Structure formats: C-alpha cells, structure tokens
Amino acid sequence: MSSLRNAVKRKTHKERSQPAARRQYGLLEKKKDYKERADDFHRKEDALRRLRRKAEERNPDEFYFAMEKARTREGVHAKSSVEANKYSQEELRLMKTQDANYVTLKAQAEAKKVERLRGALHFIGAPVQARHTVFVDSEAEAAAFAPEAFFDTPTELLGRTFNRPRRAQLEDAAAVSGMPTGDGGAVPAARLERRRAASYKELLQRQQRQAKLGGLAMRMTLQKQLMGKGTKRKLKPHEQEGSAPNLFTSVLKGLAVAAIAVGLVLGAASPALAARSGGRVGGSSFSSATSYGGGASSFGGSSRSYGGSSLGSGYSGSRSAPALSGGSSINFGWGMVPFGGYGYGGFGGYGYGAPVVASGGGVGFGEILVLGVLAVIAFQVISSLTNAGSESFGGEKVAVAKLQVAMLGSARSLQRQLDCLADRANTSTPAGLHFVLQEAVLALLRNPEYAVYGSSKVRKENGLDSGEDAFNEVSLQERGKFKEETLVNVGGRSRSNRMSRGGGDGMQELIVVTLLVAVQGKLQLPRITSREELVTALNRLGAVREDQLMAMEVLWTPQDESDSYTRDELFLDYPDLNTL
C-alpha cells in the first residue's frame, strides 16, 4: 500500500504571493519571519521602557563613579568632553586658521555671486543671446538654414536651453505643459514679475549670507589671535585705525623704530626672533652697470710730483712737510697754495706747503682777496666734477621691490621647487637671474590656494649706487631673520649644508617666500590684501625685462626638510604681513 500511495500524483504546493496592492513592500513575509521581527521590536521597547523608568526614579544625590568628573551648568548636569583635550594649542590654532580661510573664501565667492546678480537684475525678460553654434558647408546653406527643421522643434521652443522636445514628442500633452504662451514665444508679464521677485529675494538672501560670513570670519580671526602667546589689551580710541594721530605717540613710535633698526644693525638676530633654516638664490648686475673709467672720480694722478719753484714746495694727493727758505720771518699757516698751508694744488689734488718769504707777521688784504678767489674756483671745480659724475652714472631711477608671501605648510612641493631652482640655476649672468625670477614667480602663481599672508613694498632711489645700497640693505635685513642659510646660490657661488642644530620641535605650519627685485626704471606693486592683488603683483614682477633687472634674490624659510616654522615665529619675524 505504501508504494501505491507514493505512486499517486500529489497536489503541488504553491506559496502565496504578495498582493498587488502591497507589491512595493517586496516579497510576502512569512509568519515565522514576522514573529521573529516582532519579538525583537518588543524586546527593544521593553528595554527602553525599563531604562526610562530607572532614570525617572533615580536619586540625583546618589553617588556614582561618573560624579567625580561631572559638572553642572545652570543646575543641569553637563558631561566633560574628552575631545577638548585631544589637540594641542598649536593644532587648534592651525585648524581655526584653516576654518577662517575657508569662511573668507566662501564670503568672497558669495560677494561675486551678489555682484553677478546685481548686474543681471535689470535684464530679466530681455532676449537671451544665442549661444548655440551650427556649422554649415557653404554660405547658401547658411542663408537657407532653418532652426526649426534642424532641431525638429516648434518656433516657440527654440529659446529653451533644456527640456526642448522634438515634434514627435509633442503628442504627449505632459511634455508641453511648461511651453510659454503668447506670440513669438514671449514670456507673460506675470511670469516675468514672479521671476524678478525671486531674483530680488535671492539677492537679499545672498547679501545677508555674505554679511554673516564676513562677521564670522572676523570673529574666528579674533579668536585665533586671542589664542596666541602674550597678554592682550583693548585698544584706546586714539590707537584705533582711522583715528587722528597723536604727536606723542608718533614720536614714541619713531624712537622705537629707530631703536629696533639700531638693534638689527649692531646685533645679530636672537634665537626667538630668527627663523631656523633659510634658502637664498639670486645675484646682482650693479657692478657691470657701474663699471666706468677712473678719470671722473680721481683728481689728476699725474700731478703727484714734487715742486721746487720759488713759490713753495708741495705735491698733490698727499701731504709733505713745509719747505723752509731764507727771509726775515717765516710764517706757517693752513691756507691755499701758494700762500702756504693745506689746500687745493694748482694741478689738481690736495697738498700743503709754506710761503717762501713773508714780510710781516700776518696776511694782508690782497692775500686774503686772492685766497678767497682761489677758494671759489676750487669749490666750482669740485662741484662740477661731482655733478658730472652723478649725472653720467647716478641719475637713473632704480626701484627696489620686496614681496613676501606666507604659504601653508602643506605646500611642500613649492619648497622642493625652490630647492631645485637653487641647485640648477646660473646666477652669474643677467639671463640666469631673469630665469630665476620668472621661475620663482611661476612657482608662486601655480599655488595661490596655499597663500594666507602677504605684503609688498617698493623703494625708489636716484642713481645706481643708491639703488645698490638700498637693495643690499633690504637683503641684509631679510637674511638676518634666518639662523642659518642652509642652501645658497648667489652670484655663481653656491653652498649647501645641513642644520648644525636639531630641527624644529613644532609642527610645520607655514613657509615664507621673499622676492627682492631691483629694477632700472619704474615699478609699482599693489598693497597686497587679497589673493587677487597677490596675483597682480606677481604678474608685474614676472613682466620685468632682462635689461631692466639690476638685482634679484629669492629667500625662503624653512629650507631644511627637518625644520619647521610656526605661526608665532611668523608674527615675530614678519609683523607687516596682511591676511589674504
């Protein structure tokens, strides 16, 4: 019987499917699956209910281990956060700086959008200029070109840049529900009014957002400055920007600046006020521009001969003992030759001699008159020689420019580019100096997003000698901010060495790059307060011609890879930098 029962065909079991109304919930859930999910849900509900009841019935004065570090704020228990002590003071200040830079960047982007909206508000509803370009093979095709046939769409839909259906799609009414009405595809006045109102509303919202971002950036910058070292004090009314200057304060500032300048000249930079390692590359072409004959600056070297005439003895260019000669009396005095004394020689140069014979104990009126005439002639000769030399070789204008940029420490590629430039540059020729200047400018232009501080200054000098003195002075001031110059390539002479002391113990926050340029002629740089002005100043430096470039140097710190440069050191070494 059992075998016969197995041979009988049985009814096929079918699983019930999900009803059509509940198809969006997926496959039909079986009872055992539903029971398991429901039990889990009820377990969680019961646990939450027990915890809620336990919290309501808990005695707030009962001791528990968390009470040792718990604090109350206005009667409410507040848990102490461990994340507050996770970062050091320098890391927190760096993060606040990055946040402030991000907020400033967003505020600038919002300002550009506001200006764009202001310029387009009055053109709402105006015909849009066509921007779709269609290329044809001949002028005949261009004259017979029909946009409706080319795009396969009605005339009233040609002005659309998107959602422009073809004629085959226009059979569906939903596709043309947003098609404009009116003759020639003109937008109705009501729709224009709504669009204009929406644009004005967007403009107001963006202006408010720009104001909020600007205020937030100011507050974040203030918090970052308050986190710095040293005590802070509130500025007095006469110390605030835009107030009338105080005479006493101005005098004190002048004395302080003079004291600092004397300290920089007479003393070396202290470890607290000097960067750790620095690189320097560049050179000068002033010597080749000022090489001229010595005849204009020397007074007749051929006149160095002893004279034995009856008027006296002496020689030009050096001193000689007065000659003694016979007579009733001999007087010695300081005066112009031939009357004796130290003065201007007849053949050029300086010398002194003694009179041959004097008839009395003094000098007469005629001698005084001749003495005055000779003094005037000597003064005119010396003045003419000095003026001729200055007009020939010192009358040209020289501009000495200094541009400084502080980059974020993440711009390590810029540091490596400057190191490579210092290794392979030829700084002994004007062409090599011009190449170094352009490469340094390009390296800064390719990394504008890392720039956070900047400044520029231009000094105008009359004459190549004054320009060279000013350039050397600025170069020495900037080099004095380094403890060591670990990579140098100046004037064809190069050297490289590691730091004699250990690297910085702080984190790498900033890289400071200084460009010193002396240009023959005029050079104007903007006051750098934004990244746009920084790019403008760099472009002007990069546009300097090779025949204009007199001298240039690129200095950067830190140069050593194991070295670091913090924000506190930046504020001490470079107080004139502006926030970008």
Task: Throw out a few tags for this protein.
two-stranded antiparallel ribbon; 8-stranded mixed β-sheet; alpha+beta; extended; 12 strands; 580 residues
Summarize the structure in words.
Among the domains are: about 25-55; about 90-120 and about 195-225; about 270-290 and about 395-580, no CATH class; about 320-395, no CATH class. The chain is built from 14 helices and 12 strands. It has helices at about 1-5, 30-55, 90-120, 140-145, 145-150, 190-225, 245-265, 285-290, 365-395, 410-425, 430-445, 465-480, 530-540, 565-575; strands spanning about 70-75, 75-80, 275-285, 340-345, 350-355, 395-410, 450-460, 480-490, 495, 510-520, 550-555, 580. Strand 8 and strand 9 form a beta hairpin.
Element layout with pairings:
Elements lengths: L1 H6 L23 H26 L14 E3 L2 E3 L10 H32 L18 H5 L3 H5 L37 H38 L20 H20 L8 E10 L1 H4 L51 E4 L5 E4 L11 H29 L3 E12 L3 H13 L5 H16 L5 E12 L1 H16 L2 E9 L2 E4 L13 E11 L10 H12 L6 E9 L9 H7 L4 E2 L1
Parallel strand pairs: 3-8
Antiparallel strand pairs: 1-2, 3-11, 4-5, 6-7, 6-10, 7-12, 8-9, 10-11
Helix pairs in contact: 3-6, 10-11, 11-13
